[in-house]
Amino acid sequence: MKKTARLILTLLLCASARQGYCANTAGSSAVPFLSLPVDARSAGMGEAVAGAVSGPMALFQNPAGLSSNKKTAISFSHALLVEDVSYDVLGVAVPLKSGAVLGAGAQYLQYGSFGSLDNTGAAAGSLSPKDGAFTLGYGVALDEDFFAGAAAKYISSKISGSAATAAMDVGLFLNDESFSMGFTAQNLGKGLKFHKEESPLPTNLKFGLKVHYIKDWQLAMDFNFPKDGSAWVAAGAEYVIKRNDNWALLGRAGYNTAASDTKGINGVSAGFGLVRNNLSFDYAFKTMGLLGSTHHLGLTYSLGK
């Protein structure tokens, strides 16, 4: 079964490259918030998490990774982006008696308020754009270490008008003792239609690999093939410092080439995690060139022993 799983993942990766998802049409997609890191862990690791998914946030990163949740858990993330822009994400994972895992979550991006003008240049009140998505996902084991998952999402966007659509994510995840691999197709569906113009969703095909380099070290790498831009690579590392049975400290660092053509230091990230029994706190910062840095905060709580 392992050989079959690896073959499937390889074929899917090759197929994605042939289907034209690397076409350079950057900037043409709606709701770009769906491409932002959903938690501090992924932000700190350069967004290299398709093969290194963990916790309820797997719902948004690779729904097949939901199966890594052995007990009910809830995660919340808050990101401070540029100016008044903030991004909040909530994810919940609930293991079922059948062995599958059910996931639910919400994403909310708020741009703040700013003045608007009419076609004559006169003041016409203010705008408060908002983007949001609600997601339901399901992860199931196909074999002892091979998993599949899918997530359906409802997406809405409000500028001066509003629009909504539905989309889907699908994924595969292979979890071996010394490494793990993941493949996911994100944001599959029709675009958002404002008035008479339709903007496509930020569809992305992602392949990821994680290896245990040495004890307490994990190295991860993702290859991304977005429909609206050039292919890009993400790499990250996570180091675990276990203090005792109750406390643990994790250090993270990463880099990606998603915006390597912009000025300034871009794509560099770092962060840490602090774990106390069933509760964990995460922080990360990520450089965005001339726009400065983003800051990501997160809390995860697991129920039960």
Layout of strands and helices, then pairs:
Blueprint: H1 2-18, H2 40-44, H3 58-61, E1 73-80, E2 86-95, E3 101-110, E4 114-117, E5 123-127, E6 130-143, E7 146-158, E8 162-175, E9 179-188, E10 192-194, E11 197-199, E12 204-212, E13 217-226, E14 232-242, E15 247-256, E16 266-276, E17 279-288, E18 293-302
Antiparallel strand pairs: 1-2, 1-18, 2-3, 3-6, 4-5, 6-7, 7-8, 8-9, 9-12, 10-11, 12-13, 13-14, 14-15, 15-16, 16-17, 17-18
Task: Describe the protein in words.
The protein has 305 residues and is mainly beta. Helix content is 9%, strand content 54%. It contains three helices and 18 strands. The protein has helices at residues 2-18, 40-44, 58-61, and strands at residues 73-80, 86-95, 101-110, 114-117, 123-127, 130-143, 146-158, 162-175, 179-188, 192-194, 197-199, 204-212, 217-226, 232-242, 247-256, 266-276, 279-288, 293-302. Strands 1-2-3-6-7-8-9-12-13-14-15-16-17-18 form a 14-stranded antiparallel β-barrel. It has a two-stranded antiparallel sheet with strand order 4-5. Strands 10-11 form a two-stranded antiparallel sheet. The model is unreliable at 1-27 (pLDDT under 50).
Name a few traits of the molecule:
305 residues, mainly beta, Porin, 3 helices, disordered N terminus
